[in-house]
Amino acid sequence: MGTNKRINPLRICGVVAVSAGLLAPAVPALAQQEGAAGAFLEEIVTTARKRSSAEAVQDVPVAVSAFGADQIEALFVRQIEDMSYLMPNVQLESVGTFPGVQNFSIRGQGINSSIPSVDPTVGVFVDGVFMGTTYGVVIDTFDLESVEVLRGPQGLLFGRNVTGGAVVLRNARPTGEFGFRARVGSTNESQMNLAMTVEGALSDTFAAKLALMYDDDSGYYSNLNPSAPAPAPHPLQPFYANPADGSDVGAMETLLVRPSFVWSPSDRSDWTLLFEHGESDGDGSAWSNVTEQRAGTVPEFATLSDETGFTEIEWNQLTLETNIAEVGNGVVTNILGWREVNADSAADIDGTDLPIFAAPGYTEQSQISNELRWAGNLGDNWETTFGIYYFDQEVEYREARYIWLPPPIGPDPLGVNLQAALGGDMDAENFGIFWSNDFHVSEDWTLTAGIRYTDESKSADIIIGGCADNTNFDCTFDSLEGEWDNITPKLGAQYHVNDDTRVYGFWSKGYRSGGFNFRNARPDVIPAGPTKEEENNTFEVGLKTEFADGRARLNIAAFHNEVTDMQRELNIPDPLVIVLQATINAGDVTIQGIEADFVALLTDNFSVNLAFGWQDGEYDRLDPFVPAFETALRNAGVLGPDEVIIGPDLPRLAPTNYSLGFSWDIPVGAGLVNVAANYSFREGHPYNDSNSELFDDQKRTNASINWFSGDDRWSASLYGKNLGDEANWGNLTSIAGLWTAGPMKKGRVLGLEINYRYQ
């Protein structure tokens, strides 16, 4: 554990100077500015099905939301999670105890935990590499080539931990032509963002690129605590990471350095090397006391925290992608990935001016993976992809809890002081083999069939019950092991009604391996694990069509998911550890819904986009009955006598969600002005399975005015996010009878951004 440090921006200058000397200028290629309104109807390609070549999204028989670089710019989204409000039944918020951790939910399948011993339900893949932990993943959209969000289980091609779906990110590659891009932005809340890329050819066969991003957020949430508490040791609380001084909280600095290289020794082969170094340093999560807010004691976007806390995340990752064409009638692709993460953080979880609950901890993770596949044609009508996959991960997680219960609890007039050390170490190894096929029965009919076999083993050493040694974690550990294997098939069909319309249907299976409870503070209540594997059978039918001479596009999908042994995190008040957090197999669940998205170019300069999602989920079986879970359900009134299921409602499942927006291009001289706005709504829903607290309705209104120069080099934007100043809360936790929460979104933010590009 450590203290907050500052990122030195001078590092950026040094890297820029080196790169500028390496990349020799070439003749720039001027692009004709075509406007932002029409960008939504441009053909978008996807690599999600791992074919020998990219496919148009409209040709892919699966529910996928895909955005290329032009669409990302046209939407003016700078964070991936902002994009989720434009997709039906998708929630890409950072939900967890500490900032910088992404736990996504798609079609009602998502977890709330930031514990790395519990696998996510939505897999995140960066440049073809699965992210074993989402610390430091998904920060900024700058220099992204594409974002693809596949809804529903993707067990055939992506394997483990994609029962909810997959988020596939692809960074832009070097083109071999000289180019330079820069972005500078600032907001009314003293946030500054700097980003740049420079690329060019180093030889006839070798190209390089450097992308840099630096973001300095001084903090948005007001701390109304007027003075700093006394430093440790303290009679009531022995630990303070950063004593609060009444200044704003939520500050965060982020530095991203991403060099990449492409070597093309022949027309048949290319080698791509991508490296990424990232750092995020700042405050801990800005926890607030919801009970005090609803009583009117503390306003929204404010806290009385006595401790600022800290967050330090540093990661390095390396990807080597090799493509060799003309191997048989296809392409051989190999993706080797390596990543390491070190995360150190602490937060004032109670959000009050009393030292009730502080939680420092750290996570160290390393992984290596390799996927080798061949994709091509076995005949005129038979497209196939065959591959083998290997993944190995090591995780070390430690968390300390410092808990003070105020009088009159206990005989001590100062209250009761509790300390607990939690955590563990885990090794995970995964092997998979897969085969996917498309049979073109005729010009109109295509049949899909595929299968994947996965074998996985995990071993863990877990602190038993939480010991008192919060400094050295010299505790007693329990050694546990788990092994799982699974077959995930897919069967489907697609029919081309005409050149512009396609209908499809399929059945597929998803799988998520079991995990361990590193927060095993009460082994007498919740076992340390391992949990059983989670399986998902999904049935989906859909329609994809374009009409009005290609000026309108409509996609509709309906799905029915049957989940067996769903893994869910308990979040239950406990008299000994304040809040009990553990993952169990809660039971069997059915989730079904409808999704639709529509975009139309009404005039040459005006487009509209709509998205709608409806979903419904319910438990079919609650088993096994963990006593703590059963008690929580009965107390919440969702479990009646004789184990009659009255509820509960599923967490992270918004029954109704929609968005609507427009984009209007206005020619001004040789340039262009674009006016865009979007409104989104996500219905309130429970945060946890015991239904003890709810997310409120989430409403977002964003707008921007953008100017583009006639030579397509300069652009400037005035924008506003969350113009309605809506407070959205997550991480709802009961602390000593009070509800606390970490904010998921800032309030109203106004900003200015200037971009320049030379290519």
Describe this protein's structure.
The chain is mainly β and 759 residues long. The protein has a single domain (10-758), classed as TonB-dependent receptor, beta-barrel domain (Maltoporin, Chain A), CATH 2.40.170. It contains 6 helices and 38 strands. The strands form 7 sheets. It has a 22-stranded antiparallel β-barrel. It is globular. It starts with 9 loop residues before the first helix and ends with a strand.
CATH homology group: TonB-dependent receptor, beta-barrel domain
Strand residue content: over 45%
Q: Please compute the radius of gyration using only Cα atoms.
A: 26 Å
Instruction: Give a quick account of the main beta sheet: strands, pairing sense, barrel closure.
Output: 22 strands, antiparallel, barrel
Mean pLDDT: 84
CATH class: Mainly Beta
Q: Unreliable runs, pLDDT <50, ≥5 residues?
A: 1-6, 9-33
The name of the CATH topology is: Maltoporin, Chain A
Q: What is the number of E strands?
A: 38
The number of domains is 1
Gross morphology is: globular
Measured between the Cα atoms of the first and last residue, the distance is 45 Å
Number of helices, where a helix is a run of at least 4 consecutive DSSP H or I residues: 6
Structural class assignment:
mainly beta
Helix content range: under 10%
Level-2 CATH architecture: Beta Barrel
